[in-house]
């Protein structure tokens, strides 16, 4: 969101970077015509991000992950650096074993 001249002056005077405003807009709670992100909610978000960071570090150690979704759930998943899936022919038809063409 763009800053008005007034807002730009005020956040500069108060030492508030625009990135913090963006976080409050994203994670804050609406209170009338304002968005508020209090200390309690900030601590909850920090803990959630720490958990996500640990999970992302695990994915990173595996060299990344690939997930294949299906209509009713995950079909499979594999580490990017460990497995190279076979390529499906461009015409998307699999040849049958022993079938003559």
Structure description:
The mean pLDDT is 88. 43% of the residues lie in helices and 19% in strands. The protein contains three helices and four strands. The protein has 101 residues and is an alpha+beta fold. The strands form two sheets. It has a two-stranded antiparallel ribbon with strand order 1-2. A two-stranded antiparallel ribbon has the order 3-4.
List the helices and strands and how they pair.
Elements: H1 5-14, H2 18-27, E1 29-31, E2 34-36, H3 39-61, E3 65-70, E4 73-79
Antiparallel strand pairs: 1-2, 3-4
Short description:
It is built from three helices and four strands. By secondary structure, the chain is α+β, with helices and mostly antiparallel strands.
Helical residues, percent: 40-55%
H-E string: HHEEHEE
Task: Please compute the radius of gyration using only Cα atoms.
Answer: 24 Å
Number of helices in the DSSP assignment: 3
- Strand order in the largest sheet: 1-2
Number of strands: 4
Strand content: 15-25%
First-last Cα distance: 61 Å
Structural class: alpha+beta
Overall pLDDT score: 88
Low-confidence runs? none
What does the largest sheet look like?
Answer: 2 strands, antiparallel
User: So what's the overall shape?
Assistant: elongated
List keywords for this structure.
single chain, 101 residues, alpha+beta, two-stranded antiparallel sheet, 3 helices, 19% strand, elongated
């Amino acid at each position: 969101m763009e800053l008005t001249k007034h807002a730009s002056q005020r956040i500069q005077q108060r030492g508030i970077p625009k990135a913090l405003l963006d976080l409050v807009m994203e994670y804050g709670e609406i209170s009338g015509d304002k968005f508020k992100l209090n200390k309690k909610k900030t601590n909850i978000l920090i803990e959630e991000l720490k958990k996500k960071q640990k999970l992302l570090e695990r994915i990173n150690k595996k060299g990344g992950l690939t997930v294949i979704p299906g209509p009713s759930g995950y079909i499979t998943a594999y580490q990017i650096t460990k497995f190279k899936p076979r390529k499906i022919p461009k015409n998307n038809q699999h040849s049958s074993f022993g079938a003559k063409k």
